[in-house]
């Protein structure tokens, strides 16, 4: 197979064995949650939801004293519901029905955004990483989450050509699509990366 008309030949076409398919984001701001759910499911955690991810991010933000995105109001509202309804704790599993029944708290949750936390996974968090690091992660059947100030995506494979150029298979949860993008474009958009290896 050649790259374009008579160009370099494809030498490697790699997809991570932990790529289980993408998960479309459920709200306009939940790309971070969809990227995390995609990675978690790739590594066998099929019970996590985007709502749980968003809930955990908001609660952690409030615990850290970062009160952006109504995290304080959300956390206090969840704690009040937890206390008045005798729930085990403030985890999503314990309070999801109460949050979903409260229009204000559900609104805070649906409009939240953040960075995937990837609880239970083995990760390396960095800024922009080089192509060789992405390639090594994929060769070890990992996934790479890539983000910037506006959006998160998942890199799950690559193509290498006889001229040593690279293209990446990238899943975009906003549009629920996969694309093959040249390495320069992928790296240009990357401000933050999370290598997920286990």
What does the model show?
With 198 residues, the protein is of the alpha+beta class. The protein folds into two domains: 10-42 and 120-196, Cysteine proteinases (Cathepsin B, Chain A), CATH 3.90.70.10; 50-110, no CATH class. It contains seven helices and seven strands. Strands 1, 2, 3, 4, 5, 6 and 7 form a seven-stranded antiparallel sheet that branches. The longest helix is centred in the N-terminal third of the chain and has 14 residues, at 50-63.
The overall pLDDT average reads: 95
Helix content estimate = 25-40%
CATH topology annotation of the largest domain: Cathepsin B, Chain A
H/E element sequence: EHHHHHEHEEEEHE
- What's the count of strands? 7
As for the number of domains, it is: 2
- Characterize the overall form: elongated
Task: Please describe the structure with a list of short key phrases separated by commas or semicolons.
single chain, 198 residues, alpha+beta, Cathepsin B, Chain A, seven-stranded antiparallel beta sheet, 7 helices, 22% strand, elongated
List the topology elements.
Elements: E1 10-15, H1 31-42, H2 50-63, H3 71-84, H4 92-100, H5 103-110, E2 123-126, H6 131-139, E3 143-147, E4 152-161, E5 166-172, E6 177-182, H7 183-189, E7 192-196
Antiparallel strand pairs: 1-4, 2-7, 3-4, 3-7, 4-5, 5-6
Helix pairs in contact: 1-2, 2-3
């Amino acid at each position: 197979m050649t790259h374009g008309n008579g160009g370099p030949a494809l030498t490697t076409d790699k997809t991570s064995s932990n790529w289980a398919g993408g998960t479309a984001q459920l709200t306009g701001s939940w790309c971070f949650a969809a990227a995390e759910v995609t990675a978690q499911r790739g590594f066998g955690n099929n019970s996590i939801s985007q709502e749980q991810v968003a809930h955990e991010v908001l609660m952690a933000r409030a615990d850290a004293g970062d009160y952006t995105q109504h995290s304080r109001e959300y956390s206090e509202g969840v704690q009040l519901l937890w206390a008045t309804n005798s729930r085990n704790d403030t985890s999503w599993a314990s309070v999801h029905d109460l949050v979903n029944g409260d229009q204000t708290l559900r609104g805070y949750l649906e409009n939240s955004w953040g960075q995937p936390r990837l609880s239970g996974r083995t990760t390396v968090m960095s800024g922009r990483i080089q192509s060789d690091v992405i390639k090594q992660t994929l060769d070890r059947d990992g996934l790479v989450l890539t983000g910037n100030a506006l959006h998160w995506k998942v890199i799950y494979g690559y193509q290498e050509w006889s001229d040593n150029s690279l293209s990446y298979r990238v899943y975009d949860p906003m549009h629920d699509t996969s694309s093959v993008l040249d390495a320069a474009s992928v790296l240009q958009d990357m401000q933050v990366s999370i290598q997920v290896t286990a």
